[in-house]
């Protein structure tokens, strides 16, 4: 069998180099040298979790980090990332003097000034408690807990950032409909 040159030169190609070229065409190997072919572990395609529209970039990045950790079945970092997303979201609701507080302190301030509905604050407190468990108690976070935290986080972010925009759009459509005969 004649070997096909992989470097564009018309000279002979070693069996190892030819094996490497075949492996590269099929995504099966990594060339360390012409004589050293090692299998490469490929990662599965990541499922894309929806991130609500209209959320700030730093919040979106934290949610994306959590989603990536979920795909890797790393429950503790996922929960911590989702709680970080809520922490960043709280910063958008507070003034400068409260920005340095931890998430629990921010939630206390938000409950004191009635900025958010009590049920939403309870959801955020639940996420914060799971974050504490994730950070301090190895093995305390299961896949089910991480998925519940993700669901709560997405729901809260939709309420805070996506819903107001959707309401404005609906009000505009209603006003436009009233103007038409």
Radius of gyration: 26 Å
Stretches where pLDDT is under 50 for at least 5 consecutive residues are: 3-28, 43-47
Query: How many extended strands?
Result: 2
Task: Give, in order, the helices and strands.
Answer: HEEHHHHH
Termini Cα gap = 80 Å
Characterise this structure.
By secondary structure, this protein is mostly helical. Helices cover 61% and strands 5% of the residues. The chain is built from six helices and two strands, in the order H-E-E-H-H-H-H-H. The protein has a two-stranded antiparallel ribbon with strand order 1-2. Helix 3 packs across helix 4 (103-112) and helix 5 (118-136) runs antiparallel to helix 6. It is globular and about 65 Å long.
Features:
single chain, 181 residues, mainly alpha, two-stranded antiparallel sheet, 2 strands, disordered N terminus
Q: Care to give the gist of this entry?
A:
The protein has 181 residues and is mostly helical. Helix content is 61%, strand content 5%. The protein has a two-stranded antiparallel sheet with strand order 1-2.
């Amino acid at each position: 069998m004649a070997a096909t040159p992989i470097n564009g030169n018309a000279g002979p190609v070693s069996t190892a180099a030819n094996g490497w070229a075949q492996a590269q065409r099929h995504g099966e190997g990594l060339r360390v040298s012409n004589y050293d072919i090692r299998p490469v572990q490929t990662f599965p395609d990541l499922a894309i979790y929806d991130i609500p529209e209209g959320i700030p970039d730093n919040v979106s990045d934290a949610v994306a980090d959590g989603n990536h950790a979920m795909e890797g079945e790393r429950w503790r970092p996922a929960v911590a990332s989702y709680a970080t997303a809520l922490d960043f979201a709280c910063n958008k609701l507070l003034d400068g003097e409260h920005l340095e507080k931890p998430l629990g302190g921010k939630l206390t301030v938000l409950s004191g000034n009635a900025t958010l509905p009590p049920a939403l604050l309870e959801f955020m407190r639940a996420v914060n408690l799971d974050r504490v468990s994730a950070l301090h108690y190895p093995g305390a976070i299961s896949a089910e807990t991480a998925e519940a935290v993700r669901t709560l986080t997405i729901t809260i972010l939709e309420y805070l950032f996506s819903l107001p925009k959707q309401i404005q759009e609906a009000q505009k459509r209603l006003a436009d409909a009233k103007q038409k005969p």
